[in-house]
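Slide 14.
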Amino acid sequence: QVQLVESGGGSVQSGGSLRLSCAASGYTYSSYCMGWFRQAPGKEREGVAAIDSDGSTSYADSVKGRFTISQDSDKNIVYLQMNSLKPEDTGMYYCAADFQGRTVVGGTESVLRTGSYDYWGQGTQVTVSS
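Slide 15: predicted structure.
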């Protein structure tokens, strides 16, 4: 059974940094795509960043240059380093996984869509104050 557990959320002031972690377990696939999504109150969940098993990455325009997604394949952990945080980055951040062979090269936008993922974590809250 696939499990995704997020951690690292918290409250920071504008301009601060946080690093989110997503620990994945319960799968044996060597090919995967992992994504970070966020959802603010009253808004739809949106894609933030994604990384596939080849290490290719994709980012939403709103976070390019500020967020970095990375992975430790040995530990099955995906990270989201968030710098220069803004109040509009506030929301619940979710980790998601796809094991259907989706790749960043195959679609830089599709890997940022919620419908591209079958497995989701419970989320970790990020709050950025001005």
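Speaker note: The chain has no helices and eleven strands.
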